[in-house]
Amino acid sequence: MLRCSGMVSNSYSDVSVGMQADVETAFGLRFNCYAFCNLLVRLMQPKPAFGIEDTHRILDQFQANIRGSSEGLGWSSAFASIQRERPYDGKLHALSDSLMVLHRGGPVSITYTVDGKSVVRHIPKGGVFFLPAGHECDVALHASLDSTHIYLRSDLFADEENGARNLVGGLAPILGERDAVLEPLATAIGDTIVEGLPASSLFVDPIAKAIANRFIAINYHKSAYDSGKQRYQLTIRQMERVRDFVEANLDSDIRLEMMARVCGRSTEYFVRIFKATAGVSPYQYVLNLRIERAKALLGRDGSSIAEVALQCGFSHQEHLTRMFRRFTGVTPGRYRLST
User: Fold this and answer.
1) How far is 28 from 48, CA to CA, in rounded Å?
2) Where does residue 134 fall: left (phi above 0), alpha (psi -120 to 50 degrees), or beta otherwise?
3) What is the CA angle 167-218-120, rounded to 5?
4) Which H/E stretch holds residue 149?
5) Tell me: the pLDDT tens digits for 267-324?
6) Which run of H or of E encompasses 68?
7) Is 141 helix (H, G, I), strand (E, B) or coil?
8) DSSP strand E in 86-126: where?
9) Which of 219, 214, 114 is nearest to 156 (CA)?
């Protein structure tokens, strides 16, 4: 059975509270250099990778057949896995992060107990289970199930336009409902795991944020954003800095927070105003530049197609070939012959 209770965890707000205290100390009437430096160190530290140790590990406990996971890929905003689950009866303890489960098969029967009341749900393929941070659950899965598990960092639910207030505390568990937006988003993350792309964090971060925003939109008492607010764009100089940074690092894993830092913006704010400025998402923008770099290298002699792939930030030759054909309509080999 699945028992969900509102054991609200404040761990996701402790960091922001601590930072606020440092800011007030550092910039108050009595300037404290130590507090200010402590704040800067914390802000400049890269986000730790989201590993399996941060999850419930219930799949290991009940010996699910795990096809792949994001372990070792360096993702910081989410952790995901694809598996075939066996029937089990287990407990999901309260965490400071949230869990989404997409049913890739079905229908399947699951017994939930919410606030002491047992509920049996027959969940179809595409159904979504959502366990917000701070909630504790027991689950009884009555048949085998193909699923995708996605853990979401609680800072994804921050409303940065309104003082970075975290909205995850206003969300409730979702027990198997289908959603036309969440299903393709979760599927995209699952596909990324199956492909095993090492430079995938730039692609995954905005999807994880979109999933969080969708849960807020359908499961919170008000919209995540005020649509009446003025839209802003990056300056010409900021766009030049972004392009210079991307071109200098095309052979590596370019993260959203790195691009945002170049502009002096928060990651969430950067994602929103970048598309308003460039007309494409940061992921699409970087991919365009990778393809342009590949065209230039393929026009020269000396480098194999596999070497070109690595120099442009693709994980292997097949990855380059797939993306190159999508953008140009021809393979890298045929493009090289034509030049």
Assistant:
1) 30
2) left
3) 105
4) strand 145-152
5) 888 888 888 888 778 888 999 899 999 999 998 878 899 999 999 999 899 999 998 9
6) strand 65-69
7) strand
8) 88-92, 98-103, 108-114, 117-123
9) 214
52-197, CATH topology level: Jelly Rolls (2.60.120)
Closest to 282 (Cα-Cα) out of 253, 312, 259: 259
The reply to whether CATH 3.40.50.11500 applies to domain 230-339 is: no
Give the tokens for residue 87: 């029937």
Q: What is the pLDDT of residues 27-36, one digit of tens each?
A: 343 335 544 4
Q: What is the chain's mean pLDDT, rounded? A: 81
Copy the structure tokens of residue 244. 């210079």
Question: Same fold for the domain at 52-197 and the one at 230-339?
Answer: no
pTM for the model stands at: 0.57
Residue 198 — pLDDT band, cuts 50, 70, 90?
Answer: low
How far is residue 67's CA from residue 147's CA, in Å, rounded to a whole number?
10
Backbone angles phi, psi at 107, to 5 degrees: -75, 160
Task: For the chain, give every domain's residue range.
Answer: 7-44, 52-197, 230-339
Candidates 255, 175, 253, 256; CA nearest to 219 is 175
Q: How far is CA 71 from the centre of its chain?
A: 14
Cα four-point dihedral sign 172, 173, 179, 182: positive
Work out the average pLDDT over 146-169: 84
Query: Please, what is the angle between helix 267-278 and helix 201-219, to 10°?
Result: 100
Among residues 237, 228, 239, the alpha carbon closest in space to that of 273 is found at: 239
